[in-house]
Design goal:
Layout: H1 2-6, H2 10-23, H3 29-36, H4 40-53, H5 73-85, H6 92-103, H7 109-119, E1 145-153, E2 163-170, E3 176-182, H8 187-201, E4 206-209, H9 230-237, E5 241-244, H10 252-272, H11 277-295, H12 313-320, E6 322-327, E7 333-336, E8 339-344, E9 356-361, E10 367-371, E11 374-383, H13 396-422
Parallel strand pairs: 1-4, 4-5
Antiparallel strand pairs: 1-2, 2-3, 6-9, 7-8, 8-11, 9-10, 10-11
Helix pairs in contact: 2-3, 2-4, 3-4, 5-7, 6-7
């Protein structure tokens, strides 16, 4: 009997101690029921079993037998085959979701994790001590603060070019408002994402970004200019505050979203066979809807802080346009973007000589030449030499991918020329 007692669990030991005291008359049945959290009727049943069988009466009759909730062997084999064939690098949570959605097998996340552990597909990550940052409370209203960031990554896992995902996420709810795939993290890409956000939700009160050159002038002691980047001028025209974070951890909402997207979105696109920017952008709205249904939380305030956009789409595109000032020559010409342009007029056009005009570079690449309150017609007539663009760590990959693509296209032609020359 002593050997059996040593094999008892903690709860069984506690129950045995109460039954022994009850049998010796040290406790009443009511008090024993309070200590065990059961009724007097069940106490009487346990006491009868203890007097008949002794200490062994507290041991479960199911000990050593298979669980009644054990999955059928065929179902376990089916899950194992799916995990090995289609979801070998999926986390337990995402794998459980895909098993339910695609395979029609609904099992718990922990069941999937235990199977992955047995198959060697999942290993617990070693946790290291992390620097502790003070948690900032979420903003109360949807649209008060939209965190924005770009995430360069091999989103297509080699099936397509490397690119950048521009992420807009609401601080109050954790709700994704825009996902925009772009070759690189550029002002134009952010303006396209901003246009999508405004048309879908309205004008937010503020954007929260890092200190990349797209959002902030980082040149010390700048002596000229207005101190704003092109993106900064656009949000100023739209009356949106642009706030720069001091550290990446300060905008933790979007940083954590980027990590989750690099896991979940990559694998979702792998399952769908997506391998291009256009396919990925078409897939993004459905993914955003699923993300928000799963991860977004209700805001503390019911009021939407967005201001509705009351203008037309053309008005919004004009507000997003990059603007430059030019002075027309006596021949009514000007230069822009490495090209010489001539303004077309129906009359002599002497009034326009030396006139200051504003160039509006629209998000779609078109250009308007505005003089006072009207647009002037113009035609390009001469290409000018222009310096090569300067790249940073966020646009370098896109530049190199373009170089590699050109070399791959030129290799067959070069081999053909060599074969003709040799022949």
């Amino acid at each position: 009997m002593a050997g059996d007692v040593l094999m008892l669990s903690g709860n069984e030991r506690a129950r045995l101690d109460v039954l022994r005291r009850l049998a010796r008359g040290e406790l009443s049945q009511a008090r024993a029921g309070e200590l065990l959290g059961i009724g007097v009727r069940q106490v009487k049943r346990l006491l009868r079993g203890f007097r008949a069988e002794g200490d062994a009466s507290v041991v479960s009759r199911r000990r050593g037998l298979p669980s009644n909730n054990r999955l059928p062997t065929e179902l376990v084999r089916r899950i194992e085959a799916a995990l090995c064939a289609r979801y070998p690098d999926f986390g337990a949570t995402l794998a459980a979701e895909k098993l339910a959605q695609i395979e029609g097998v609904a099992v718990s996340v922990e069941t999937v994790r235990q199977i992955q552990l047995r198959l060697g597909l999942w290993r617990a990550k070693a946790r290291r001590a992390k620097r502790v940052f003070q948690t900032r409370e979420r903003r109360p209203r949807f649209g008060e603060l939209i965190q924005i960031d770009g995430s360069p990554h091999d989103w297509f896992e080699g099936r397509g070019p490397r690119c950048t995902l521009l992420v807009f996420i609401d601080d109050a709810t954790g709700r994704l408002t825009q996902l925009r795939f772009a070759p690189a993290e550029t002002t134009r890409g952010y303006l396209e994402a901003l246009k999508g956000h405004v048309l879908a939700h309205g004008l937010p009160l503020a954007f929260y970004s890092d200190r990349h050159g797209i959002f902030r002038i980082n040149v010390k002691d700048a002596q000229s200019g207005d101190g704003l980047t092109e993106f900064g001028r656009v949000v100023e025209r739209l009356d949106i505050e642009l706030i720069n974070a001091s550290t990446p951890q300060a905008k933790g909402r979007v940083e954590r979203a980027n990590q989750t997207l690099q896991d979940r979105l990559v694998k979702e696109m792998r399952l769908c066979g997506i391998s291009s920017l256009s396919e990925a952008q078409a897939f993004a709205p459905g993914f955003v809807a699923g993300w928000n249904a799963k991860f977004a939380v209700p805001p503390r305030g019911e009021e939407d802080a967005h201001r509705p956009w009351t203008g037309s789409i053309a008005d919004l595109e004009e507000a997003l346009a990059r603007r430059e000032q030019r002075v027309l020559s006596k021949a009514l010409t000007f230069s822009a973007g490495g090209t010489r342009y001539a303004v077309q007029t129906t009359g002599p056009g002497t009034a326009l000589r030396g006139a200051r005009v504003t160039l509006l570079h629209l998000p779609d690449g078109a250009m308007r030449v505005r003089y006072k309150d009207r647009d002037l017609a113009c035609t390009p007539f001469k290409a000018l030499p222009r310096p090569r663009p300067v790249e940073d760590d966020k646009t370098l990959d896109a530049r190199l991918d373009g170089v590699i693509a050109r070399h791959k296209q030129s290799q067959p032609a070069a081999r053909a020329r060599a074969w003709i020359t040799a022949g």
